[in-house]
Amino acid sequence: MKVLVIEDDSDAAAFVKGVLSDAGHFVDVCGDGDSGLKQAKGGEYDALVVDRMLPGLDGIQLMKGYRDSGGRAPALFLSALGEVDHRVEGLQAGGDDYLVKPYAPSELVARVEALGRRATGEIPTTRLAVGGLEMDLLARTVHRDGQKIDLQPREFRLLEFLMRHAGQVVTRTMLLEKVWDYHFDPQTNVIDVHVSRLRGKIDKDFERPLLHTVRGAGYRLEA
Amino acid sequence: MKIGSLPALVRTTTFRLALLHASIFILFSASLLAYLYYETAGHMSRQAETELNAEFQELSAAYRGGIDRLNQAVTERSQARGKFYYLLLDGNGQKLSGDFDVLPAAAPAGQVVDVQFEYDARTPDGEPSRLSAEGRISRLSEGGVLMVAYDVGQLGEMNRRISEVVWRSAAVGFVLSLIGGVVISRSAAQRAEQLARTTEGVMAGDLTRRAPVLGSGDEFDKLSEQLNAMLAKLERLVISSRSAGDSIAHDLRSPLTRLRNRLEAGLKDDDGPREALVKSIDDVDSLLETFNAVLRLSRVQAGATGSFRRTDVRGMVDELAELYQPVCEEKELGWVYEAKGELFVLADSHLIAQALSNLLDNAVKYTPVGGAVRMTASHDANGDVVISVVDSGPGIPAQDRERVIERFVRLEQSRSEPGSGLGLSLASAVAEAHSGKLVLADGSGPPGRPGLKASIVLPAA
Predict the structure, then answer these.
(1) Per-residue pLDDT of chain A in tens (223 residues, 90 and over written 9)
(2) Cβ–Cβ gap B327/A190 under 8 Å
(3) CB contact under 8 A, B364 and A84
(4) Complex confidence, ipTM
(5) Do A190 and B365 touch (CB under 8 A)?
(6) Which of A143, B130, B407, B455 is the most exposed place for a label (fewest CB within 10 A)?
(7) DSSP track, B336-365
(8) What distance in Å separates residue A213's CA from the closest CA in chain B?
(9) Closest A-chain CA to B363
């Protein structure tokens, strides 16, 4: 993926660039809002990573300007401001995701890759398939190797999210936000419990596991 | 306020209003008195004028019969000793009849003129006196002059008396209304002064100062009440941020010291600093978590929260139940969830969910294997919405319940568990931000190990 990072703090920018480059992406960096907007409009980027507080044009204005000029690349806001109203403001300005500083490198990579996938793969679909696992979004049924698997509604949504991001690392925080719409971290391991229940249903009776735990990061559904 | 500080008094708004009030009062009474004057003294003058006109009309009627007829009429009238005095002169200026001997010296020229003059006369008792008179002089068409006059002495006296009364009333009224203004101004100024003293005291650092409320229910009382409410809130905020500062200093210093020691030890460790680094990252993560919790708590306590909407508590609690039920089952805890009735509150649902999640985290954390966790949502007897999380853990002794809501307070037996000590503080702050409260009570356990019942009580919407 080709990613544009707009971040004025050079240490932070170097860190983001390093993390994304290590994950195999091409990264350009811009140090202020005005040149960032110019470069975002000019280049063909697969995703933008935008710091909220920038000299000159701030992140919110930059995002509005970019969307108004017809820019389509999905964007992730980075910000130290993490309250719900800040997130809403960022998403309303045209951002697609919002990551609060400080964050784990794996969280950043997982979210940027999820954005890239969304931009290319967000075609309305009625079927998802990973390995022998098939999900019918209309009938709301799941089969693996032809065998029907019964899921609770929330488990269905959890699996749907994992299948839509198959092959990518999905963090616990992402799951809490996207599947449960909670923007805080419970102290107990609620997500792990739900994922392990889901794993019990889709992997237990099968030889090859699909749902993998990625240590220190989250989960990945992969054939 | 001291009597001597008059300039300060003059500067007060109330005094100016009192002065304005006095001026309006003066203007009003002046018009009233002027009207009174017009209706009394003025009326008498006009009355005399009318009578004079009538007299002249009658005399000109007599004059149509010739100068002799007129002379006769004047003589009769003069002798009748009526209200009027007369003088009739012939064409040569010789007196024909009347009470005067000559025209007054100041008589102006003209066909018909009004005159004012003084003359010497005798009172009916024969005493000489000098009288003021007003009258009219008419030059007759065939030569000769007729003057009719009347004594204005009496009238003038009356006028003088009346105008004197008018001026005195005005003066007395002005003085009285000024005094009234000063009295009103001083009592109002005193209240304002008390408020000013209160705020001065607060600015000097005494946050316990409050403005006096006299119970009269007037504007000053309302202002004082508002000010007191504001000061109470301010005091709470200052105390809470002060204690937050203390707590942060206390609770963050030790993990930071530990982190520093670990890093230093890792530096000296020849086997490689990897182990130390991994542990340090864990330390930093937990520090950040604490820090975020402090910030969130401060935000909630400062009231800088998102918008409140009418929210269905049931939907929210259903979702939380669904989130936590597997966690309880995993830990082999009994799980019960009950919700009754239509439960709506005015709330920021994210905050309420977080507060409840803190309570559920605590319940799961402190309830031993084999225990039970129960979540209920319903109306209480007052119609408020109550969401309770009940566990069968060790509970919190009654005397500690106030304290655990404070920031960073963790009871001895919970020190070994992970956590920031902010969970209950946040739940309480969230409840208060919604005009509700967090209530702690004994839970479902047996005596000696009563468990905890933590309830968030919110006003129904």
Answers:
(1) 899 999 988 898 999 999 999 988 999 999 888 889 999 988 889 999 999 988 888 899 999 999 999 888 999 999 887 777 788 888 899 999 999 888 888 889 999 988 876 655 556 678 899 988 999 988 999 999 989 999 988 899 999 999 988 888 899 988 998 898 888 878 778 999 999 999 999 998 888 899 999 987 899 999 8
(2) yes
(3) no
(4) 0.78
(5) no
(6) B130
(7) EEEE-S--EEEE-HHHHHHHHHHHHHHHHH
(8) 18
(9) A188
Contact B357 A186 (CB under 8 A): yes
| Distance from the A43 Cα atom to the nearest Cα atom in chain B, whole angstroms | 36
Q: What is the pLDDT of residues B334-392, one digit of tens each?
A: 999 999 889 999 988 888 998 999 999 999 988 999 899 999 999 999 999 999 999 99
Select the residue from A156, A173, A179, A187 to test the B interface by mutation, using most B Cβ atoms within 10 A.
A187
Q: Which of B323, B348, B365, B389 to mutate to test the interface with A (most CBs of A within 10 A)?
A: B323
Q: CB-CB: which of A102, A187, A194 is closest to B419?
A: A187
Q: Write out the residue limits of the CATH 3.40.50.2300 domain(s) in chain A.
A: 2-121
A59-68 helix and A33-42 helix, angle to the nearest 10 degrees: 30
pLDDT exceeding 90 applies to what percent of chain B?
14
Assign B12 a pLDDT band (cuts: 50, 70, 90): low
CATH code 3.30.1380.10 for A127-221 = no
CATH for the A2-121 domain, from 3.40.50.150, 3.40.50.2300, 3.30.1360.10, 3.30.420.40:
3.40.50.2300
- Interchain proximity B350–A197, CB inside 8 Å: no
CB-based contact B292 A82, cutoff 8 Å: yes
